[in-house]
Amino acid sequence: MMDYSRTHTATTTATATPMRPGTPESSPFADSITPIPRANPFASPFTSRPGSTNASSSALHQQILNQRYFHSRRVRKGEVERPWMDKKDPREKWVTIIPLIGLFVGFAIAGFLVYDGMKTVVNHVYCPVLDEDFSGGFNTKIWTKEAEVGGFGYAPSLGLLQACTDETFRNGQFEQTTTTEENVFIQDGMLHIKPTLQDAKLIETNTVIDLRKQGICSSTVWTDCVAVTNTTNGTIVNPVKSGRINSKKGATIKYGRVEVTAQLPAGDWLWPAIWMLPVKDTYGVWPQSGEIDIAESRGNNYTYAQGGDNIISSALHWGPNTANDAWWRTNVKRNALHTTFAKTFHTFGMEWSEKYLFTYIDTRLLQVLYTNFNQPLWARGNFPLSDSNGTRLIDPWSQTGIDATPFDEEFYLILNVAVGGTNGWFKDGASGKPWVDQSPTAKKDFWDSRKSWQPTWQDKGHMIVKSVKMWQQQGYKGC
Question: Would you say domain 126-473 falls under CATH 2.60.120.200?
Answer without folding.
Answer: yes
